[in-house]
Amino acid sequence: MKTGYNPSPVKFNLTQLMAENQYWHDVLVSLRRIIRATDLQSKRMVKSCGLTIPQVMVMRAINALGDVTVKRISDDVSLSQATVTTILNRLEDKKLTERVRSSVDKRVVNARLTEAGKEVLLSTPPLLHEKFIERFEALEDWEKTQILSALQRVATMMDAETIDAAP
Fold this sequence. Notes:
- By secondary structure, this protein is mostly helical.
- Strands 1-2 form a two-stranded antiparallel ribbon.
- It has helices spanning 14-20, 23-49, 53-65, 70-77, 81-93, 115-123, 128-137, 141-157, and strands spanning 97-101, 109-113.
- The protein is elongated and about 70 Å long.
């Protein structure tokens, strides 16, 4: 006698699923392309000027802000103060930045580009996100909102909404 519900195991047929709906596959391919583009940009940067993208970002922040504290750099580039301090240590080892005490308040230590740092910064290629920002800003507001919403949804679907997104 048959009683109750006894579901048969569901078989996952990838080929059949791909034939029925290609969207998820195309989304994953696009995500892999984005990841690959950022990876290639990072490798090009290191090859071009010997610096990582976060190092270039920190140097650009110092260049734009002048003599500046770690806290201010951290806020500008969206990296933790600990990360910025580590980056500054490496840039100092390469003689691209230096730390100087404030003439106004001797307790304050500022980062500053050296002449060598200024020269290296002139030779760095544009960052991938700079091109993106330029192109993104050219979009209509509804397109920007749509892209943001879709990417936030994708991040949630991938359980990535709480992952630190620092470069």
